Structures are given as structure tokens and as C-alpha cells.
Sequence to fold (255 residues):
Amino acid sequence: MLLALAAPLHIKTVTTADDGWYRSITSFAQHTAWLQGTMKLYTLTGIALLCLMALYAWWNARARADHAAMAAVAWLGLGTLLSIGGGLLLKQIFQENRPCQAIHVATVEACPGPADYSFPSDHTTFVVALAAGLWIVGRKLGIIAAILAAIEGFDRVYLGQHYPHDVLGGAVLSTAVLLIGWVLLRGPLTRLLALLLGTPLRPLLTTAPAAATNTPSPSAAPSTHTRRDAATAGGDPVKTPASFPRPETWSPDSR
Fold:
């Protein structure tokens, strides 16, 4: 209740401080007509690239049959959903109008309707959640994803759809949810996925057969005895199959 009451005052203060940044970036957009088409296309292209990276992370973890890696991928998906849900809740609490409705400047894209609130940016919340999740899965993937997510965040302001603080708010929300949640849930999630390997969901978690094991069967290992024969092998070990009598115990009387 207190958050809901304080939200309008907080947003008004931040928005006033953010106007200058918004005006500067949208003015830059108007003077770079050659870039506008690319930035419009990137709105969905950036999301698609990050989704493909998440799909690759799942496919790779599944092939490795690694419980910890698959747990990281599972949290990537779950944490992203939680971040989006949190962002939608914050929109209803703060109910901030879009900057293109409050500031009369030319924008590259048309302004959304009044019920489509601004804080936090949905696009940024989504892509940063994917980037943070990919960072958990692997650092190289995370670095690439972070660059793509940063471009997406700038894109939302460039097109005139959001204030810079909308983008920053979505990024902070997603990063906090993914990283803090992973610290708290890593162990339980890993154990849960290990249990799910015995269910019909197994093909989604690993490509390894259910009966596969890394420990060889004792019957499959060849049994040999080793002896040293300096006269014939120069002192090196010589392997003799166990099915034959040991040379040192065999004699003509044993025939």
C-alpha cells in the first residue's frame, strides 16, 4: 500500500531528471535516419537472437547429461518468467505514462496507448533476464548476451518508447531475480532435476540412456596377471592371460 502511494511521487521525480536524456537520444534518432530502419528491426531481432542462444544452451546441457548445467538452463527459463511477471506487476503499481505522451518530441515509432505503461520496460526486462541466465550457464554466452541486451535497451529509448530509467529499472529487476534466485535455488533445483530423470520428462533433460553408467562392469574388464621376465622382456612387465597357469608354478608333471 505504501509503495502504491509513494509510486507517483517517485516516478515524477525520476522522470523530470530523465527528460534531458530522453530528449537527447530521440533527437539523435531524428538525425540518424540511416539507422532508424536497423533499430526498428533490432527490436524483435535482438530478442530472437537471445532466444536462440537460450535454446542452444539447453541443447548443449542436454547433450552433456550434466545435472548442474541443466539446472542453470532451467533457472534461465523460470527466472525469466518471474522477471516478466514482476515487471508487469510494477507497471500496475507505478502506472507511469510513456515519455512520448508527456514530452512533445518527434519519435521514430508511434506512441503506444495511454494504458500501455512505461516503467519498467518489458523488452529490457525480458532480454536482460535472458542475458543474466546465459551468464549463469556460461560466461562466454553471457558476455555476448549482455551486449545484445544493452543494444536492445538503447533501442527502446532511441525509438522513443521509454525513458532511460524504464530501461535501467527492467535491467536491475531481471539481474536481481536471476542472480539472487540462482544463489538460493541452485541446490534444490539441481536435486529436483536429478529426480525428474526418472520420469517421462527425461528426454528433455538428457540424451543419455536411462541404463547408461560410467562404471564398467567387472565381467567386461579383461583379467590378466603380470610378471617380470628379465631374460625375455628386459625387465618390463609381461601380461599373461589368467586362463593359463602361471609360468612359475607350471611343470611337466602337471600335464
Remarks:
- The first helix runs from residue 2 to 30.
- The CA atoms of residues 216 and 222 lie 11 Å apart.
